[in-house]
Structure formats: C-alpha cells, structure tokens
Amino acid sequence: MHVATLDLEVDRLLGKKTLIVGEAGTGKSHLLARILEKMVETIDPREITVIDMAPFRFSGVGGKLRDLTDSVSRVRYLTDEGIAPPRLLGRNADEVLRLAERNASLIEPLLIEYLNRPTRVVLVNDLTLYLHAGDPSLLGRVMEAAETFVATCYEGRLLSDDRGSGITEIERRRLAELKAMVDNVLVLREPFIVRRDDMRIAGGGAVEDTEGPNGSRL
C-alpha cells in the first residue's frame, strides 16, 4: 500500500469491485459523484444503476448523491427517503436497532429491484447503512450480478457510539468481510478536494490505495 494524492483513471474501475472507505467528511460521496460523472461520458447510462443508501443529511453527516451531481438523472437511480442515520437519531440501544432494521427493510427492495433488472455497472452510496442489519447474501448477489461495482462505506471513529446496540461491531465485521471480496479498497484519510480533467479524477488529500485479494491496484 502507499499514501499519495489520488489520481484515479476511472476506466481502471471497470470490470472490478471497489470500495471507497473513510471517516465522515472525507469526501467519499463527492468522489463517487465524480466517478459517476465520468462513467456516463463513456458508458451507456442505461447500463448504470445508482443505489443510494445514504440517509438524509443530519448534523453535517449524510446526504443523497443527487445533491452532489445532476448525473443521477441520466441513470437508473434507486433510493428511499425514509433511510435514517441510526447512531445519530437513536437515543438508546433499542431505538438504534429499530432504525437499523427499518433501514434494511427499506433498502432490501432496492437491491431486489436491481437484481430483477441488472445493469453492467452499480454504484452504491453509503453501503454501511445496509451492513448494520441487512442480509449479506442479498448484497453478495448484487455484487456478483454487476460487472463493475463501486461502493462507499463509512470506516472511522466519529460515529462509533451506537448506544450499546452493537451495530458498530457488526459494521466493522461485515466491512472486513467485504474488503476480502473486492479487487480494490480506496481509503480516504483526510478531506478530499476533487480536481477534474478529461481522463481522470485527481484530488488533494491523503489516500491509501490498498490492494484487494486479487492483487490489483487502482
């Protein structure tokens, strides 16, 4: 692995499974938005599905991908307005668990809708919200159905207080399992500012580019 500023050729994501992980506020969703903007320039937008699992913005955290790019209007965009941030809204363990379970019940139909009509490319914003209480096997089927899979996931300490519900430990364990399934893991270490040109996405901010199990790099 190495630490550097990000200089990402979007074409190198194609045909791969990639996770973008990092602390809250490091720009994971912003990066995913830029990736989508590049992909719709070179891929038939009908072959791209965005599954937006992000909650509404609350206390400066979260927010839908459609708030960051108009390109979602060109692709198949699946989301649910009821998805909520469980650790920020839940006042105790029971409330956190109920919110996590409700999120999973709202997200599951989006995954099934994709599987009923799969596309070559799937971009997932804030996959973490499904990891808390969702069905890993259903997520695995989505990953297998897509030629190209790119997802953002929360990984950090700022949101670790789960009111004793246990969802933070579940999140960490399932994220570790996901990392073992993908080709590449891109870790954003500090706030990310995107610069764009015709062929690639470049940005300032420390990035740890980690090999996946197949030994490939972004």
Please give a structural write-up:
The protein has one domain: Rossmann fold, CATH 3.40.50.300. It has 6 helices and 9 strands. Strands 1, 2, 3, 4, 5, 6, 7, 8 and 9 form a 9-stranded mixed beta sheet that branches. Strand 8 and strand 9 form a beta hairpin.
User: CATH homologous superfamily?
Assistant: P-loop containing nucleotide triphosphate hydrolases
What is the H/E order?
Answer: EEHEEHHEHHEHEEE
Largest sheet: 9 strands, mixed
If classified by CATH, what would the architecture be?
Answer: 3-Layer(aba) Sandwich
Which topology does CATH recognise? Rossmann fold
- The level of helicity is 25-40%
Treating each run of at least 4 consecutive H or I residues as one helix, how many helices? 6
The count of DSSP E runs of length 2 or more, i.e. the number of strands, is 9
**pLDDT below 50 for ≥5 consecutive residues: which ranges?**
1-6, 195-200, 202-206
How would the global form be characterised? Answer: globular
Brief sketch in words of this structure:
This protein is an alpha/beta fold and 218 residues long.
For this entry, give a set of tags.
218 residues; 9-stranded mixed β-sheet; 6 helices
Topology:
Elements: E1 2-9, E2 17-22, H1 28-42, E3 48-52, E4 76-79, H2 86-89, H3 93-116, E5 121-125, H4 128-131, H5 136-145, E6 148-154, H6 167-179, E7 184-188, E8 193-196, E9 200-211
Parallel strand pairs: 2-6, 2-7, 3-4, 3-5, 5-6
Antiparallel strand pairs: 1-9, 7-9, 8-9
Helix pairs in contact: 3-5
